[in-house]
From TrEMBL:
Residues 348-508 form the 5'-Nucleotidase C-terminal domain. Gene3D superfamilies: 3.60.21.10, 5'-Nucleotidase, C-terminal domain, Endonuclease/exonuclease/phosphatase. SUPFAM superfamilies: 5'-nucleotidase (syn. UDP-sugar hydrolase), C-terminal domain, DNase I-like, Metallo-dependent phosphatases. Residues 17-252 form the Calcineurin-like phosphoesterase domain. This is ExeM/NucH family extracellular endonuclease. GO terms for biological process: nucleotide catabolic process. One of its GO terms (molecular function) is hydrolase activity. InterPro entries: 5'-Nucleotdase_C, 5'-Nucleotdase_C_sf, 5_nucleotidase/apyrase, Calcineurin-like_PHP, Endo/exonu/phosph_ase_sf, ExeM-like, Metallo-depent_PP-like. Keywords: Endonuclease, Hydrolase, Nuclease, Signal.
Length: 1248
């Protein structure tokens, strides 16, 4: 290339570049395709209008051509484009179809009648990214007939005073698109790098305008496709600004974009359009400005200029000559047909593009076969669009068959010369393609041909149900007898038209790894005939319609009748083989034979050839998937019809702790015994009618799914319905359940079926309960409420089978003893939860807070120890690690639809009389804190259903009420309880240590006494003041112990004494006081020590001695505290000269645990044990006493009785101040009931 210099006076030149691509030898006009003559005339007309014109191309001008061109190795196309004045083109992959040597030695070589009669392109082909392996030079030669200068990668020419340079490149995927052997002499490099280097060379050589020709293109017409991270997008972004325009091809799309001031264009395909670019180029300054860019339809150009008219006529003559020669060449014999291969027909004889045809299936198989080699993609499945078949394939059949098939006849069947595209598609994507046989255009409208049946290759089969909803009609797909998996990827081949989404098969757009195989459909047929002649029609149907009745069960029991209709059993063209009957087999055994109606109708569909099937389910079928095989008697058409056999509930449940078929999809049936449409369970329970308890349960939970959809499925049934259910079996929280995939998997069975609940004692072990899981039971024998704590939150309570609540084992016997072990075993055998038929969290779920709590009313209320009677049956269920009685529907609002009744209530207005002259009580007052959260910084709160704080959850040092109004509610209940105790001395635990808040240490005591006296309307109560010597605030806890008393009855003698030992660091120190009855003598005095030992919660882990070894956490510390207490009490007894010593309070130890044994061994006796007092606490569904009163021998002799007033532990927490306004039902009242979580203990002392 030699640089030239423009004259100084040269004016700007309007340089016109006309672009084309992917012409593919389209010589004849076909709709929007202009044909070679009009196309050449349009170029000549535009050149006549602007002589400063260059005509360039983006490659694939030849190859994959129509019959008239490819039968002569595209010589007619070369001549037509020569006449059109093509100047330069990038090489496309199809230019290499016959190999590199064919391109340079024939196509680009000069025409010679003797040595190169089929070559002679007079334009310059460019491939800057294709180099010879031998020397690294550009692989393509300079075409002598071309007017410019070329080195095989670039080409430059003059337009007036303007130097225009071109650089051309081919797709980097060339090696995968053509035969590797054909391009073994060359290697392909990167487009961007080679283009930029070539553009620099062109600029250095004086080019004023640089144009890139690239055989690579955008994947859509949207501008985003030229700027994204795709292969083409990276080319556009990577090419230097020295390149003024990019003319592309390969993807057959027409677009006209400007990106960062540079046109990026493509004309589409087949001579339909021209890209028109006009640049104003100043040859002096080198300035380049884009003046015009457009896509010009070739048919829209009026050919009027004399030179253009002459060109058009010249090309018309060329095309006629090519057509005449093709006629002769078309007589070539390709092979023989064993019989006719026809398109589908209607009754009138006209074409039915909605019908399956032997021809469509053959062409699909030919295309698969042609691309089945690894280098062509290893195709497994081929598809053919019916509109691509323009004639039947009959051959020269005047003398019958076998008949010769000629080249022209084959070309008449497939006249479009489509190249074959191989791609990767998942099974789901293949299904989506088949669903689009039921047609909709891009706008969603049903087109004039509402159904198009695709031809499919050998080995591919599918079934469909035309009655199903759009998008869900394909019911099964198989490849060589194996079911197509949705996630598995398959190699698929279709012609370029179909692969691009033609005929509204847009689902092909989701395919990946699309590539042009370098093969064309007609040549594939030519090759197939040569290899397979004589070719016969495959008589088997590849697609068959299978429709079950709308009320067909999802699963069948033995002897049930399976009914379904078959369609698409018959080809519809004359000469096609058709079945008279179909046989239905199961596991090789004949179940029946049914006639086929082969009447062909007049509607465009594929439903001709029908049969109605009705067979009995074999008795040998077990649950699960089975296959009925349908076989045509003449064609051998074989259809697999999956049928699900059902399984009785007992087989699903099995005899073990989990289902033997967990993870499988099964069908079963049963009577609906419970329905939970509301409350969160979202399901219902079914039970086999007539079945009695046996080795396996006959009940099963049907889970509808989460959310509103699941609740809706539960609402599809009513209690008493007889239903058939299909779903997946699973274990949820150790409970066997079945989950239907759709509402259609729940089907009503006609008929009334009665079911009687099983009246059985509550089983004492898990195997016995498993055998009744989800069965309808009528509980027999007595039951007792053992815990109601979760009633307030989850609407559930613990019951104990029998007449008494469950007992803490260590409240009955020594830890680890056989007696304690027996109690634990009895607890496990007797424990069951009565649930409310819901998973509602009435505390934390906003919607549930507005639903009235189940089972609970204010008066009478439900208390631990209340007897329970079942008027209605329940479902035995399991969840959250508990066996449960579930009502048949959700229970809300007190008694409501409760299956049980409770009571009579055991509430009393006062404790039982304990005798004596002085009554002493101990009472844990549940974090009685006058210092409320709103007085401190950083407090976190428990909130009521309106979001108002009620009590403190953490974040600060106070532990009680959130605000004054909350404290007043708490105080009112405590006051009612203490005044109703009618005791003269009350030991208090868990009251505020006001010193921690920089106030008088006794402020909380004073506050309580003030409230007590106000309630009585007199100064009845006083508190024992703290002694002069108190522990440091840093060593004490935020709660403490204390005494209040009635001065009219007793006097506090001397100062109180606080034990200040290390055993109680940051804990609640024992507090001692000597009391003397008014009017009594020194002998009447008694020493009272109130205690609050370390709690059992949040223990360290083993081997720490305070880990939980069966008596709760910190048992070792409590033992130490008990030992310190004994010593403290002994010393005070001596120093105060008081013989009678009482120890009371919250010891956080059950009656027979180690800390209590320390006290017993020291000579103290439990007054609760001595007088048969009730337990003071409920935890974990078991009752037991953490609160105790103990007496030494002298004190015991003066004791007259003891009682626990069960006003707190047995009451629902819903009555507590801290649950005020938690539920739409208001349970709070100013009563003693649930004033704390511990019950007060009272004992009598006879001092006279």
């Amino acid at each position: 290339m030699v640089a030239s210099t423009a004259p100084a006076h040269a004016a700007p030149v309007d340089v016109q570049i006309l672009g084309t691509n992917d012409f593919h030898g389209r010589l004849l006009a076909n709709g929007a395709e202009a044909g070679a003559a009009q196309f050449a005339g349009a170029v000549a007309q535009l050149r006549a209008e602007n002589p400063n014109t260059l005509f360039a191309a983006g490659g694939d001008l030849i190859g994959a051509s129509t019959f008239e061109s490819f039968i002569q190795k595209d010589k007619p196309t070369l001549d037509a484009l020569n006449a059109a004045g093509l100047d330069v083109s990038a090489a496309g992959n199809h230019e290499f179809d016959a190999g590199y040597r064919d391109l340079v030695d024939r196509v680009m070589a000069p025409y010679d009648a003797a040595s190169n009669e089929l070559g002679g392109a007079e334009w310059q082909y460019l491939a800057a990214n294709v180099r010879r392996k031998s020397d690294g030079a550009y692989a393509l030669p300079d075409v002598a007939a071309s007017p410019g200068d070329s080195d095989g990668g670039t080409w430059m020419t003059s337009v007036g005073d303007v130097q225009v340079g071109f650089v051309g490149t081919v797709t980097e995927e060339l090696s995968s698109l053509v035969s590797p052997a054909g391009i073994s002499e060359v290697e392909v490099s990167g487009i961007v790098e080679e283009t930029n280097a070539a553009a620099d060379a062109l600029t250095a050589a004086g080019a004023d305008l640089v144009v890139m020709l690239v055989h690579e293109g955008a994947t859509s017409t949207n501008i985003a496709a030229v700027t994204d991270d795709s292969a083409f997008g990276r080319i556009v972004a990577g090419v230097d600004q020295e390149v003024d325009a990019i003319i592309s091809g390969h993807t057959h799309l027409a677009y006209d974009h400007v990106v960062d001031g540079r046109p990026v264009v493509s004309a589409g395909q087949y001579g339909t359009n021209l890209n028109k670019l006009v640049f104003s180029v100043d040859p002096v300054t080198g300035a380049v400005a884009l003046k015009e860019h457009a896509i010009v339809a070739a048919n829209s150009v009026q050919v009027t200029a004399p030179s253009a008219v002459e060109t058009k006529a010249q090309v018309q003559a060329l095309v006629k000559d090519a057509t005449d020669k093709a006629e002769v060449l078309g007589a070539r014999e390709l092979g023989q047909l064993a019989g006719p291969l026809r398109r589908a027909q209607l009754a009138s004889g006209s074409e039915n593009r909605g019908g399956e045809s032997t021809l469509g299936n053959l062409v699909a198989e030919v295309q698969r076969w042609a691309t089945s080699s690894p280098e062509s993609g290893g195709a497994q499945i081929g598809f053919m669009n019916p509109g691509g078949l323009r004639a039947d394939m009959l051959g020269n059949n005047a003398d019958g068959y076998p008949a010769v098939l000629t080249y022209k006849q084959a070309a008449g069947v497939q006249p479009f010369a489509n190249n074959l595209v191989n791609m990767r598609m998942t099974g789901a994507q293949v299904k989506a393609v088949l669903e689009q046989q039921w047609q909709r255009d891009a706008a969603g409208n049903v087109p004039s041909r509402p159904f198009l049946r695709l031809g499919t290759s050998s080995g591919f089969r599918f079934t469909y149900d035309p009655a199903r909803v759009e998008g869900d009609r394909i019911t099964g797909m198989w490849l060589n007898g194996t079911a197509i998996a949705p996630a598995t990827t398959y190699s698929v081949t279709a012609n370029a038209f179909l692969a691009a989404g033609g005929d509204n098969f847009r689902a092909f757009g989701a395919a990946t790894n699309k590539r042009d195989t370098g093969k064309i459909d007609l040549q594939a047929m030519v090759d197939y005939m040569a290899a397979k002649s004589p070719v016969a029609a495959d008589p088997t149907q590849h697609a068959v319609g299978v429709s079950f009745p709308a009320n067909a069960p999802a699963g069948y029991f033995p002897a049930d009748k399976v009914r379904f209709n078959l369609s698409s059993l018959a080809f519809s063209a004359p000469g096609d083989v058709r079945d008279d009957t179909v046989r239905v087999l199961a596991d090789g055994a004949l179940l029946g034979e049914f006639p086929v109606d082969n009447t062909v109708g007049s509607s465009i569909s594929d439903e001709y050839g029908t049969a109605q099937v009705a067979v009995d389910v074999p008795a040998s079928w077990s649950n699960g998937k089975h296959v009925l095989e349908v076989v045509g008697n003449r064609t051998g058409t074989t259809v697999q019809v999956p049928v699900t056999a059902a399984r009785p509930i007992a087989e699903i449940q099995g005899t073990g702790s989990s289902s033997p078929v967990s993870g499988q999809t099964v069908t079963t049936r049963g009577v609906v015994t419970a329905r939970y449409e509301t409350g969160g369970y979202n399901g219902f329970v079914i039970q086999t009618p007539g079945a009695t308890p046996g080795a396996a349960s006959h009940g099963l939970f049907v889970y509808g799914g989460s959310g509103a959809a699941g609740a809706a499925r539960a609402g599809l049934v009513e209690i008493g319905d007889y239903v058939r259910v299909t779903g997946r079996v699973s274990e949820f929280s150790s409970l066997t359940q079945i989950t239907p995939a759709t509402s259609g998997d729940i089907q009503q069975i006609d008929g009334d079926v009665a079911l009687t609940p099983a009246a059985v004692p509550f089983p004492t072990d898990n195997p016995g309960r498993e055998r009744l899981e989800h069965m309808l039971l009528q509980p027999t024998g007595p039951f007792t409420v053992s815990d109601n704590y979760n009633l307030n939150r989850f609407g559930e309570m613990v019951l104990a089978a029998g007449a008494a609540p469950l007992r803490q084992p260590t409240d009955v016997a020594r830890p680890g003893s056989s007696e304690a072990v027996d109690v634990a075993a009895q607890n496990a055998a007797r424990r069951v939860v009565l649930d409310d038929g819901s998973t509602s969290d009435y505390v934390n779920h906003e919607a549930a807070q507005d639903v009235a709590l189940p089972y609970l009313t204010d008066t009478p209320t439900l208390r631990v120890g209340d007897p329970v009677s079942f008027a209605d049956p329940v479902i035995l269920s399991y969840g959250f690690n508990e066996w449960r009685f579930q009502p048949q529907t959700q229970v809300t609002g007190g008694d409501g639809d409760s299956p049980a009744t409770f009571g009579p209530s055991s509430r009393t207005a006062a404790p039982r009389a304990v005798g004596g002259d002085v009554q002493v009580a101990s009472f844990n007052v549940l974090n009685y804190f006058p210092t409320t959260g709103d007085q401190l910084e950083g407090c976190d709160y428990y909130e009521d259903r309106d979001g108002d704080p009620v009590s403190i959850s953490g974040g600060c040092d106070a532990r009680g009420a959130a605000e004054r109004e909350d404290f007043e509610r708490q105080q009112a209940k405590i006051v009612r309880a203490i005044n109703a105790l009618d005791a003269e001395v009350v030991s208090l635990e868990e009251i505020e240590n006001s010193a921690q808040f920089l106030r008088d240490r006794d402020r909380a005591l004073a506050d309580l006494v003030g409230a007590l006296n106000a309630d009585l309307g007199a100064q009845v109560w006083a508190y024992v003041k703290s002694p002069t010597l108190t522990p440091t605030v840093q060593r004490e806890d935020f709660i403490r112990t204390g005494f209040i008393y009635k001065p009219a009855a007793v006097k506090a003698q001397g100062e109180s004494v606080i034990y200040d030992g290390p055993e109680f660091d940051r804990a609640r120190d024992p507090l001692a006081q000597v009391f003397k009855p008014v009017g009594g003598t020194a002998a009447d005095k008694f020493l009272l020590v109130v205690n609050h030992f370390k709690s059992k919660g949040s223990p360290p882990k083993s081997p720490d001695p305070d880990a939980d070894y069966g008596q709760g956490g910190f048992n070792a510390l409590r033992v130490t505290q008990a030992q310190a207490l004994v010593k403290f009490a002994d010393e005070l007894s001596v120093s105060s000269e008081v013989e009678k010593v009482y120890l009371d309070g919250d010891f956080n130890s059950y009656t027979f645990e180690d800390p209590m044994k320390v006290l017993y061994d020291a000579g103290y006796a439990s007054l609760g044990e001595a007088y048969g007092a009730s337990p003071t606490y409920v935890f974990g569904g078991m009752v037991g006493s953490l609160d105790h009163a103990l007496a030494n021998p002298a004190a015991l002799a003066s004791t007259t009785g003891a009682d626990v007033w069960n006003i707190n532990s047995v009451e629902s927490v819903a009555h507590e101040y801290s649950r005020h306004n938690y539920n739409v039902t208001q349970f709070y009242a100013e009563t003693p009931y649930r004033s704390s979580d511990h019950d007060p203990l009272v004992f009598g002392v006879d001092v006279r």
